[in-house]
Write a structure and sequence with these properties.
Blueprint (H helix, E strand, L loop, with lengths): L18 E12 L8 E14 L3 E5 L3 E5 L6 E15 L11 E4 L2 H11 L11 H13 L2 E2 L2 E3 L7 H8 L7 H8 L3 H12 L3 H18 L4 H7 L5 H12 L3 H5 L1
Antiparallel strand pairs: 1-5, 2-3, 2-4, 2-5, 3-8, 4-6, 6-7
Helix pairs in contact: 1-2, 7-8
Amino acid sequence: MAKISPTTSFNADHFYLPVVGIAADMPVHDSGQHSHRRHQLLFSAAGCITIEMETKVYLLPPGRAAWIPAGVLHRAIMRGVIAYRSLYFSMDLPLKQIPLQIFAVNPLLFEVIERMAFWPWDMSAESQTSLLTVFMEELNTAPKENWGLLFPQDRRLSVWIERIRQGELPLRLNIFAQQAGACERTISRIFIKETGMNYQDWRQQWRILKAIERLAENESISEIAQALEFSSDSAFIAFFRQHTGVTPTCYTS
């Protein structure tokens, strides 16, 4: 059995096979905070998955894969996810150490993930070896993509960061500085030091991640443009194309 429903009870840590895979459609699902004793690879053909951690959030757009190392505490929130695939790898396997990372998935890697997700749970370990080798070769050469956002940990920003985590739109820098009672230069220094990005770039990255989440929830371009404070639909479309290479309509089709 590999195809499961969203309500199926499943714990990958209860298996002894080198690789355990599952397949499901999960239009809406929240895993809650958890971790595994196995490495995990997440993939979905449609929709998006938000992976929340203590100090960082990752977005897994459709057609990409996320590698989550064993022991990493995380929460997966799924929106409109179709053809969800999850693979779990034993820590006894001689795998290269990979941090939490988002990868582009080429046609060969997609077919390998698809095959492994439907492996029966009672198959022999020996029969997994050859395809596992192909999987690791493809994953090691897959292009990495930046769909993450690191939150600053400075205590002066803690209240504001919590509001952002709850979905509040980050303010423009001059307004943020006024409300925080700090100068723009101080806030910029904090963000560059703790996130590697200046505040404006950080805010833009937040906006593109939220735009993709909202597209996965079937919101219209006008609704998203208004919610993310773009001056017009065309301004949002241009922004989206700049960051993803395609228009919002093409992204969801």
